[in-house]
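Help wanted!
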Amino acid sequence: MTDPVVPDIQRGWVLHAPGDLRLEELPVRRPDPDEVLVRVSAVGVCGTDKHLFHEGRDSSKVVTDPLVIGHEFGGRIVAVGKNIDPARIGQRVSVEPLMPNWGSREARMGRYNLDPDQLFCGNPGYDGGLQEYVPITADNAHPVPDGVSDSSAAMVEPISVALSGVDKAEVSLGGRVLITGAGPIGLFAAQLSIASGAGEVHVVEPRPSRQKAAAALGATVHPSLEEAPSDVDSLIECTGVAVVRHDGFFHVRPGGRVVFIGVGDQDANVPMLPVIEREVTLHGVMRYHFTWPRVIAMLAAHRIQTDSLVTAEIPFEDALREWTQPDPDEIKTIIRIE
Ligand SMILES: [Zn+2]
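Answered by r_m:
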């Protein structure tokens, strides 16, 4: 079923090659039987989108065909496939961009984020949110209540990454957490650690604008890792910087945990003394699983805030500016589609 206002042609930002992002007219694909069609309202820009634009790749994924980028987005359902309840038309949603094969071994084991054949909106293989209309599996369109804004709906994705990291760090009541990097993921990890009852949340960040943001959220800020405390229960590493990755291990107590979220070099220098003699364990974070309902509940209950992280809102037509005129004080940019 389709709302009569849905057009056949729309606009979308298409990446053709590194540095070549164009606003083009694209067909609107009608939803398959198990899909809904989302009219996108807000799209968050992530480091991944910068890598795709500048390098034509995101870690191991290389752009070979024209691709609509954007994986942090929300909007409103305007059409449903024939297996989906038409009552969902009009519903505001946040889109989970990860589409696993539910028959895969990893999905059957409950960790669908590890399915090697997963599709992901805005990565090679599936067009993303920087277009007016996105068809998506109905289960990936999570309803959001009216108290959650469009930009918050777009930020459920990066909050989910942070939540996966906080879960892996086993942040506990009264625990001590060290977070390196106060970009969006680090700032959300700080908020979630505080909400989880951590006794101390320390954030390492050299940039004054980001230091201010971290302090305003209730974290204790240190300009460099050397000045941060040692003996913390867990380190949540959000920079991907080689020396931070290495030295961070020495700030964790025996038996503590190190969680790598930041994507940096493919090879890292990991010190063996903490790993072997002190049994500090290292955990990677590959996206998320089953986080959307939890994050939406946190947002609805105002346990986590997004507004102070939004440093710019750009109209859809001007989106290219985000890639060609970088803002050194940027935390999170939201592109709005009116
Ligand atoms: Zn992202």
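OP: Thanks! One thing I noticed: The pocket of zinc ion is lined by residues 46, 48, 71-72, 157-158 (CB under 6 Å).
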